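Before relying on records like the one below, remember that each one covers exactly one chain. Contacts with other chains, cofactors or solvent are not represented anywhere in the record.
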Amino acid sequence: MSRSLRIQLTVVALGAWIAILFTAGFAAQLVWLDGNATEDPLGPFWDVWGIVEENVYGEVPPPRERTVGAIRGVIELLDDPYTTFVEPQPRELERDRLRGSFGGIGVEVYRDTLGRMTLSPYEDSPALHAGLRAGDVLLAIDGEPITDETTLGDVRATLHGERGTSVTLTVARPPGDPFDVQIERQQIDVPSVTWRVLPEYPDIGYIHVQSFTERTPDESAQAVAELSDRTTTLVLDLRDNYGGLTRSAVDVASLFIPEGSTVYYEVAQDGEEKAFNAGAHPIQMLDRPMVVLVNEGTASAAEIVVGALQAHGRARLLGERTFGKGSVQLLFELSDGSSLHVTNAIWLTPDRKPIGEDGLTPDVPVTGDSTADEQLYEAVALLQREK
């Protein structure tokens, strides 16, 4: 056998042994990990973290951003739109929204048809008293320009703050030149419920619940108390109500159905079921004709109230199919002020219908009109027919 042939055979044999050892080692590692060995399952994560820091071409994101990215990646694997991670600033806004009270300047912010960040001050607000007007265009906050990339959430988070602190807005009010307005933040109380007697129909009361906050039960009870003395029928408007606190939803439902009546069932993953019932309330409206207005923006805690009133035959639903958010989230406060919302259960209506993705179907389907409130008109007509 020639020397060159022996070398070739040796190389082939060595390569075969390396392949066998590699394959055996890889298989052994798979079995080892499946056997719940003591190796840290997060080891590869930290390995990648270190390799990227040492070798990647380009700027490496700071640790905070990488941590948030990793958290979001894990959450995406759950394929659940309602299990979410909320960073500190948005979480503080969320708390304020559910409290219905916060430190701010009292202004609504929106993008107009030209894409401009536009302001609309609340009545009797610091923003209004400082001279802002509806339609003013926001150009900068404390000298930081508003750009196309600036989000509404960014602006709202910046305008919120500790009571007594100040913020300077640069605004435009055509045709004049831009000007600065310094505004001191104060306590802003945002009502979640408004109510009135319909002017054209003095026997019909109207209650609009915009969201279910900590303030909602007391405000709703006040509305029912005032309208009970003045009207004989009621329209409850839950359109575009994104939900909120489930305990507030139960309290509001308790104004219209008898004590002890089931408002909703909560069903955990293991099948354990818990009933949430209407409580005792000194102010109730149990027997007057009632219509509830709903649409595709009626969601979450609002659907709890809708489902309870429909299942108990207490009210007719009029409008469009609701959003269909029928799950319960536990809220965990994290050490840095952020929070994690984790889907923990689903809820059922009192007649055990899942809300799920399909939402709740109105008894009287009526499509909304962009120029006139056709749904409210139809609700009034329905109440008049049922007198």
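The CA atoms of residues 134 and 140 lie 17 Å apart.
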